[in-house]
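Support request, priority: normal
Reporter: lab tech (M.K.)
Component: structure prediction queue

Hi team, I submitted a job for GH64 domain-containing protein from Meristemomyces frigidus yesterday, and the status page still shows it as pending. I've pasted the exact input below so you can check whether something in the sequence is tripping the parser. The sequence length should be 443 residues. Please let me know if I need to resubmit or if it's stuck on your end.
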Amino acid sequence: MAPLIDRIHKVFRGRTNHKQGDGPQNLQQDTIRQQPLSQHDGANDRAQPATAPQSKATVSKAATQTGTLQVALQNQTNSSTVYAYITGQAIQNNNALFLLQADARTPYYPPNPSQTGTKIGVNISIPLGAPGNTVTATIPEIAGGRIWFSVGAPLVFAVNPGPGLVEPSVFNPSDPNINTNFGFAEFTFNSSQVFANISYVDFVALPISLTLQDTSGHVQHVSGLPSNGLQTIANGLTAQTQKDGRRWSSLIVNNSSGQLLRILSPNSGILLNPSWFQPYWTDYINAVYSQYSSQPLTIDTQASFGNVTGTVNASNVLNYGAGGSFAKPSAADIFSCSTGPFATGSNGETNTIIPRLSAAFNRSTLLLSNNTPNGTTASQYYTNATTNHYARIVHAANLDGLGYAFPYDDVTPDGGAPQEGAVFSGAPVLMTLAVGGNNAYAA
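Reply from support: The job had stalled in the queue. We restarted it manually and it finished. Here are the results:
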């Protein structure tokens, strides 16, 4: 079976280069990318359900039939100052920039402003109320959607000419949200299905879980982090730095009061500090290229190209013939999965090799088998001393071990266990997101 991204892209016509986080496109104003995303994740406490389950008798039509989806937003923090925001592109309104107003049901389509950083003209902060409270929102079909949460203070959004949404940024020190505790989930909801996930590709902050119920009563659940999950990750990164002396603990970000606020991914850390991790992968990369100069590396594209075989040639390049050639990547290339030899282009075969090769580097499985992704299982991921320890530690901290920890974390061996933590359905009835990690559980 092909990886989830390849299957979902057929439905959503999503990006070839699967990058969840937008990154610092512009350190002054991060404007939303006008393209659909393709990921997902989950939550619902069995002991204290976020929403009452609906019986089959009360479920008549799927959201894909009605054109609107119910989204339950639950406060599972210890704070009464929690806000939600829903943004994206309105599919039935010519993909216009969409924001949901504070009443959780009224759409707002910002007009095209004449100046950058124009203030949003309506209140889009949805208050979630006291801990344990749930607010149910109604949304139309949306592409490239995000559901944002903040604790302690509302988020500040703006609009640029286009119009384009200026989102909260973890990259810009002068961003008004830089000291606010926030996070988001990503989703697409169209006439075919809903597809959603939480993302750790750019950073980890608020615990967010997601649950999806369909018309048959089937429930998909991805647990996310418990309430102390961020601290667990910080402890793990600190321990890894003590072990290997690398920059893992530098990814930890405290607020102005010295309290743990968020943790950056290695890619985000490198974007802000280009010297970080520069020599980290060197020895591992050299060992990989040495091994495949004397034997082939087979990659199952899990697509029409089938199995493709490459070897390292005299120019020290991993050559796949029609599938392209791959020079030795840098640390930034490996962590980003989208630069250097991993930059996608017009060659479809190359674009199927890149996700699988990128994932194998991040998981450090290339010296374990000469067949990827089918030559190894999840129990072998991150077992080399040189690996993406951020991804390893983030997965371990999640109650079910699931979540996107790097852009191609949805690459899966045929019949293997998914790692990305996605929920999707062609007959959705209710999608529930819980923020804060209290009462989090593994299904």
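Residues 75 and 133 are 6 Å apart (CA to CA). The chain has two domains: 4-229+419-435, 282-385. Let us know if anything else looks off. Ticket resolved.
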